[in-house]
Amino acid sequence: MATTDQTQMAVLGGLSIAPMTGYALREQIRDALGHFWAESFGQIYPALTALERDGLIQRQAALRAGSSTFAITPRGTERLRELLAEAPVMPKPRNGVLLRLFFGRQVGEEACRQLVQDTRARAETELAEMRHIRDELQADTGPDAPYILLTVLAGEHAARASLTWADEALGVLDSLTPQHSPAPAPAIVKDHP
């Protein structure tokens, strides 16, 4: 499946839940799918243009100037189902933390420890966010709620797995002997994925 097909699937999927503007769609993807999927404005707006041109979505009357709302058409729903039936693309992961840890001897034990601690803190935050979303879903009786819950459960499990890994990784770092660590290296800049 091509990248553009995956973007179209995310856009059509979002619009299958409710009509919305391009901006609202981007926010919905970020907020609802952000723990496993991302789309930029630079991907969403060209997809909206192509989907509208192909009759898969339609522009509705703007509620305010410069802000069009889009709704999925019956043909768009059919296309969404076709895209969803295709085998998912599983890209190779790119994890900047693991890349740095793999070459950790070059930066030293303390820099590696900080990377793991930062990863652990992010996982705790993600787990709390997933639990909050799950609590909100308990009150949602909409037809999409059980399916959304499946993705939230995956997010919870991934966060718990990261916590378990971080605790084990810190144990490994604690067991290092001085010969495994080089002289102190420059600090690693935080906020790398």
TrEMBL record:
Annotated InterPro entries: Tscrpt_reg_PadR_C, Tscrpt_reg_PadR_N, WH-like_DNA-bd_sf, WH_DNA-bd_sf
Pfam families: PadR, Vir_act_alpha_C
Any coiled-coil regions, as ranges: none
Positions of the Transcription regulator PadR N-terminal domain: 11-82
Residues of the Transcription regulator PadR C-terminal domain: 94-174
Cited PANTHER family: NEGATIVE TRANSCRIPTION REGULATOR PADR, TRANSCRIPTIONAL REGULATOR YQJI
Protein name, entry field: PadR family transcriptional regulator
